[in-house]
Each structure stands twice: as structure tokens, then as C-alpha cells.
């Protein structure tokens, strides 16, 4: 904004918000390219690793619950 103020004082009569919006749009485009094109960390390999991790956690929890039920037969009666 300092640069915009200096340019306006020097006689460049442009709307300051156009410059700010252009800079913001340029940064947004750079961010889009970085996230969606360059660094695609959420690809198919990542998805498969996450599914395997969650299935493993679920199997461990099921095993814990089954062993708890078998260890305490008095709670099985309703």
C-alpha cells in the first residue's frame, strides 16, 4: 500500500484497489498451482495408506472387544 500511495502522489491516477486485487489474484493462482498441481499429496497411494491404517485400527478394536466379551461372561447375559 505504501507503493500505491507513492505512485498516486506522483501522478499515476489509477484505482488503488485494482492493484491490490491483482496482487491477491496472482498469489491465489500461485497457491492453486502449488496445492493442486505441484504437491498432490492426497493421491491414490495416500488414500490406500489411510484406508489400510483405519482398517487396521478397526480390526484391533474389534479384537479388543471380542477378548473383553470372552473374558467376562457375566456381562453377556441380558
Provide the fold topology.
Elements: H1 2-9, H2 16-38, H3 44-71
Report on this structure:
The chain has 78 residues and is mainly α. It has two domains: 1-39; 41-73. The protein has three helices and no strands. The radius of gyration is 29 Å and the shape is rod-shaped. The chain starts with a helix and ends in a 7-residue tail after the last helix. The mean pLDDT is 82.
H/E element sequence = HHH
Extended strand count: 0
The helical percent reads over 70%
Describe the global form: rod-shaped
Average pLDDT score = 82
Classify the secondary structure makeup into a structural class. Answer: mainly alpha
Cα end-to-end separation: 73 Å
Show unreliable segments. none
Question: What's the short version?
Answer:
The protein is mainly α and 78 residues long. It has helices at residues 2-9, 16-38, 44-71.
Which features would summarize this protein structure in a list?
mainly alpha; 78 residues; 2 domains; rod-shaped
